[in-house]
Amino acid sequence: MLQVSESQVRLGLSAPDKTEAIRIAGRAMVDSGLIDPGYIDSMLGREAVSGTYLGSGIAIPHGLPEARDLVRRTGVVVVQFPQGVDWGGGEPARLVVGIAAKSDEHIAVLQRLTGVLGDPAEAARLGNTSDPRAIMAVLNGEAPAAPVSEPVPVPIEGDSMAVTAPSPHGLHARPATALVEVAKRFRAEIAVRHGGTTANAKSLISLLRLGASGGQPLTVTASGEDAAAALQAIRAAFEAGLDEPVTAATPAEEPAPRISPADLDYDGRVIAGISASPGVSTGPVWKFQREELTVAETAPDPQAEHRRLDQALAAAAADLRNLHEEFWKKAGAAKAAIFKAHQELLDDPEMVAAAHALIDGGKSAGWAWRAVYEERAGTLAQLADPLLAGRAADLSDVGRRVLRLLAVVTESVAALPDHPVILLAEDLEPSDTAKLDPARVLGLCTAGGGATSHTAIIARSLDIPAVVAAGPSVLDLENGRAAILDGDGGVLVADPSERDRGRAAEARIKVGERREAERLDRYKPAITTDGRRVEVAANISDPAEAVQAVEAGGEGVGLMRTEFLFLQRDLPPDEEEQFAAYRTMVRAMNGLPIILRTLDIGGDKNVPYLRMPAEGNPFLGVRGIRLCFEREDLFRTQLRAMLRASVEGPVRIMYPMIAAPAELERAKAITEAVRRELDVPPVELGIMIEVPSAVMMADRLAREVSFFSIGTNDLTQYVLAMDRLHPVLAPQADGLHPAVLRMVERTVDAARRAGIWVGACGGVAGDPAGAVLLSGLGVAELSVAIPAVPSVKARLRAIAMADAERAAREALDCADAAEVRALIRHRFADTGGVS
């Protein structure tokens, strides 16, 4: 834990403006031996891109990440400006805490300041005190902490507006996450009041504890320099539904009533629950066992415990980001939003501050964290609204994710048997469910939970039958006992009769036949009924997936994301490491082509060794080929490894984010120079079509490459000016929008005139309607997620290309994506080609 000495507290100073105040704090940090003088400029640079005013008269200037080598040692100084310094928008800062940190060690100081932020009287006292020990007591954790169960009060003085909690389920996790993400874009203090309770709009847990059901009135208040803009953005977010689906829920999404066992006509013992995911499965049951986590109550070194908690939070956050990205690829943005909500729970300032306060009182990091999240989960579980109460499981999931990294003793999870089973559990956390292998889990049945829980949503997206809220009696069934899980009827049938088994088998025949046919035919080419062929390849992210792509029926790899080699490490991979990885993949393809995309990393990813500055909009900054030019050493090393691997099989190299012919010319020149150094044969070169300028210049670009690959995800967000991960706009960022389809048409036309082919490797390629429309527009190769390869090929074999072309022409004249999707559903309703 950082300790502040009396020499690091400067009282009674004055400054004409924020810049001079930062310089004064910086000079104090230099005098204390914390930083080199050059770090002061970085502190001013940080302020230019991201304000450091926290509120309640407190600012925390610190430098940009790339200047950490100018930090001599971790520490803070506190400079008091009793008369106040305007920190922008009329917000006076009276307590300026200059922070020097080589990592995230300063977080503990921030947590101690959190309690002051919500107490204007305390903040005013510290901003005017003549006793340095008063400030030291707060920053050193010597001041008494508020009880864990009490949320930090939120000031609500300012402009207000009335809104209504989104229907039908109110301010539950997904809309609350969307609200938090919008609120965090502004410096203003923002509060949400429901009845007599007020919540911090930047704290997910605080919002959930409001217990606001659908249609209930809320008051949003903001104070600060950008309060008006914040209220306007929040109003727009509420009007857009706060990321809630705008259409009525499908029957599969609605909780099904409990069904009387007699209504289902089963002979075996029927345990009734609630349908959470449709489908019927038969097999032995198996009780899921989670590890037991043990923590010591106290710890002798609070500083070490603060550090352990910060590290565990950072590791858990990275895990959640990876889980969100992987699940986004597998199940789409709406389902993956569950884990985005989990990230907000983990980043909740009130919860983290409470845990650090307990550590200051002598508790261990594990004990403190568990006490905090269990207390808050218990509060959520007692809410009257069942959907909001169900978020307790999500908080417990997040809490255990961190606790696993802090536990002193961890007992291993009991492994699942080698054969497929119906899994029984008290309840399953969402991350447990997301990691389940559908090939080994026939179905899920939980004693608790609900049909609207995130676990149920994930089970549906993975196509695993599920029944929830079946009661504790399900856990009395011994492992291996035969059962039927009827997800449609919402029951588990123990000891089923032969008649029961027969009825269950009939229910599975139709889906089973279709999936088996797709599996058996996965190696057949995707040739339409009128004899036109579309290649279906796979997107992969690591060497192991190359084998999976071939086994799934992929006719090559249309996109190999090389970023996996560069992320989550302290140094970049050398040439030999990259060569070994690329060679492994090329050999696994056994003669099938593989497209290796050069490094596509931008300011949105944390890669410390690249020393990339924080960018206000990283998607419009140095990313893709621009980064390769900035770090030509990395680019040349990667090209050497790729070209060496090309000797082993058909390798194509693809450049990302090409926006102009000059960029392509430079990339090709570097590649050719490297190729000549290695004296290896030339390879096919291509580019990603991801930005509108590349589309408009496609005729020029097509003369210089062998192929185009349309990255529909990025192209969609750049064409529609909508971030595909934006909490409010993401549902509208649909790649089937006519504007995007017109970009595809223009790209294909330019490629045809130049005699090259066009592929597509974004999410639209694996979409049922997208596969048809892209093919109809002339895209020759669809590169999709590995599990989607057999179904996409089967889908294309069921349609005529002439029909797809006519549909594509009609889609270009539609008004929006919804109209396009309705058109495709209507036109292909009788073919079975589009679901």
Which key terms come to mind for this protein?
about 850 residues, about 40% helix, single chain, alpha/beta, 31 helices, 28 strands, 8-stranded parallel beta barrel
Number of strands: 28
Summarize model confidence as the mean pLDDT. Answer: 81
Helix content: 40-55%
Biggest sheet layout: 8 strands, mixed
Distance between the termini: 57 Å
Topology record:
Elements: E1 9-10, H1 18-31, H2 39-49, E2 53-55, E3 58-59, E4 75-86, E5 92-100, H3 107-117, H4 120-128, H5 132-139, E6 159-164, H6 173-183, E7 189-194, E8 197-200, H7 204-208, E9 217-223, H8 227-239, H9 261-264, E10 269-272, E11 274-277, E12 280-287, E13 293-294, H10 302-331, H11 333-346, H12 349-360, H13 365-381, H14 386-389, H15 391-403, E14 409-410, E15 421-425, H16 430-434, E16 441-446, H17 454-461, E17 466-468, E18 482-486, E19 491-494, H18 498-520, E20 526-527, E21 533-540, H19 543-551, E22 557-561, H20 575-589, E23 594-597, H21 625-630, H22 632-645, E24 651-655, H23 661-678, E25 684-689, H24 692-696, H25 698-702, E26 707-710, H26 712-720, H27 738-754, E27 757-760, H28 768-776, E28 781-785, H29 789-797, H30 801-812, H31 817-827
Helix pairs in contact: 1-2, 3-12, 6-8, 6-11, 10-11, 10-15, 11-15, 12-13, 13-15, 19-20, 20-22, 22-23, 28-30, 30-31
